[in-house]
Amino acid sequence: MGHTGSGKSSIINVLMHFYEFQSGRVLLDDVDIRNYSQEELRKNIGLVLQDPFLYHGTIKSNIAMYQDISEEQVQVAAAFVDADSFIQELPQGYDSPVSERGSSFSTGQRQLLAFARTVASQPKILILDEATANIDSETESLVQASLAKMRQGRTTIAIAHRLSTIQDANCIYVLDKGRIIESGTHEELLALGGTYHKMYSLQAGAMS
């Protein structure tokens, strides 16, 4: 976590190998990510963005996203993240049309469809880039519950502005100008009384 411009998204871009880097290494299972093909990286790392990308097609094609998976696998993935209930209520179910960027769905519904797409690919690593920043109150509890299930048994890297969403993390890294300035659990960082403590207190005060 960190303020805007602290380098959070840049780290994700390097990890996904969207950017080349001149020095240092990024290791995945003790292997430099530059030794993986882009296809291997995309298969093993599931990326969920703040503004999920949906394209013109059907719900089924958006979840499958060019993967060679069956309709049953699509439905299993949707059910796992609790998207199946609202999909089944649509007149055409999984064959329902999706407009560009999914404008006919709520923010929470779009995020659930993005979750289903990620689960369908069965990644070993999950990256959440402000994945809950813009969700609507109607589906917030559903999205949070789905995220909890997705994280089970997976290494999860979460970029978060709302600190309440990362309190249970094994380790929280605080970034400033591209550098890690604090690290530890939620309790350890509060006890430290530094940047994290200040940001958490400000957010807690704003919500009270």
UniProtKB/TrEMBL annotation:
The UniProt GO MF terms for this protein read: ABC-type oligopeptide transporter activity; ATP binding; ATP hydrolysis activity
Q: Which GO terms describe its cellular component?
A: cytoplasm; membrane
- How does this protein sit in the membrane? Multi-pass membrane protein
Q: What is this protein called?
A: ABC transporter, ATP-binding/permease protein
Question: What are the protein's UniProt keywords?
Answer: ATP-binding, Membrane, Nucleotide-binding, Transmembrane, Transmembrane helix, Transport
| Intracellular or extracellular location(s) | Membrane
User: Which intervals hold domain ABC transporter?
Assistant: 1-202
- Matching PANTHER family: ATP-BINDING CASSETTE SUB-FAMILY B MEMBER 10, MITOCHONDRIAL (PTHR43394:SF1), ATP-DEPENDENT PERMEASE MDL1, MITOCHONDRIAL (PTHR43394)
| Keyword presence, Cell cycle | no
